[in-house]
Write a structure and sequence with these properties.
The complex is a heterodimer of chains A (116) and B (110). Chain A has 116 residues and is mostly beta strands. Helix content of chain A is 0%, strand content 47%. In chain A, strands 2, 4, 5, 6, 9, 10 and 11 form a 7-stranded mixed β-sheet that branches. A 4-stranded antiparallel β-sheet of chain A has the order 1-3-8-7, with no helix packed on it. In chain A, strand 4 and strand 5 form a beta hairpin. In chain B, a hairpin with a 5-residue loop joins strand 4 and strand 5. In chain B, strands 2, 4, 5, 9, 10 and 11 form a 6-stranded mixed β-sheet that branches. Chain B has 110 residues and is an all-beta fold. Classes of the chains: A mainly beta (116), B mainly beta (110). Chains A and B meet through strand 5, strand 9 and strand 10 of A and strand 4, strand 5 and strand 9 of B.
Chain lengths: 116, 110
């Protein structure tokens, strides 16, 4: 693995189904994020984590949950998918803190989710 | 609430032209990011800056903290520069959360 990896790349699922989007990074970044990107709305933060063991709510957290059991993995779960969650989801990571090598963002390739 | 406004929303240029994309924000920030997204593709970080100017190849990013404004310039534009360019800011509160602009869609014609 090099950088940040998301899976699946795309998925179609029925409303009401549970779905987990996976995100893994090998850069030992402490901060990780999940965004959704919708036409005309730009990127919106769903949940974030500043370090393993902690998570926080972003701008649009309803219907989504996350966990951060370790530094590398940050899965996003839709407990009961609804059509309004049809979107492209991006996972990102960065080094949180002070110093010249902190803050640059690295994004996964995105996961296109369609809820019917 | 920190708002991030980009202009223009859409920009069409001829190959070789000098391109400028603007980003304005409303509150104090600790850093500003410029990102690039190609059609159907992932998002790549171009610059992160908190003051002054940075240059990478044909790309130049500037920021004026007092005016709460940043510009992204592309010199000698090329069709492969066609992409959506996104500005994002991190506020001074120390939070790692970013606020994004809606992006500027650039099309460079040969």
């Amino acid at each position: 693995i090099a950088g940040i990896t998301q899976a699946p790349t795309s998925q179609i699922l029925a409303a009401g189904r549970r779905m987990t989007l996976r995100c893994t990074q090998d850069m030992r970044h402490n901060a990780m994020y999940w965004y959704r990107q919708d036409l005309g709305l730009g990127l919106r933060l769903i949940h974030y984590s500043n370090t393993a063991g902690t998570t926080g709510k972003g701008e649009v957290p309803d219907g989504y949950s996350v966990s951060r059991a370790n530094t590398d993995d940050f899965p996003l779960t839709l407990a009961s998918a609804v059509p309004s969650q049809t979107s492209v989801y991006f996972c990102a990571s960065s080094r949180f803190g002070t110093g010249s090598n902190t803050g640059e963002l690295f994004f996964g390739e995105g996961s296109r989710l369609t809820v019917l | 609430k920190n708002e991030v406004e980009q202009s223009p929303q859409n920009l069409t240029a001829q190959e070789g032209e000098f391109i400028t994309i603007n980003c304005s924000y409303s509150v104090g920030i600790s850093a500003l990011h410029w990102l690039q997204q190609h059609p159907g593709g992932g998002i790549v970080s171009l610059f992160m800056l908190s003051s002054g100017k940075k240059k990478h190849g044909r790309l130049i990013a500037t920021i004026n903290i007092q005016e709460k404004h940043s510009s992204l310039h592309i010199t000698a534009s090329h069709p492969r520069d066609s992409a959506v360019y996104i500005c994002a800011v991190r506020d001074q509160g120390g939070s790692e959360k970013l606020v994004f602009g809606k992006g500027t869609k650039l099309t460079v014609n040969p």
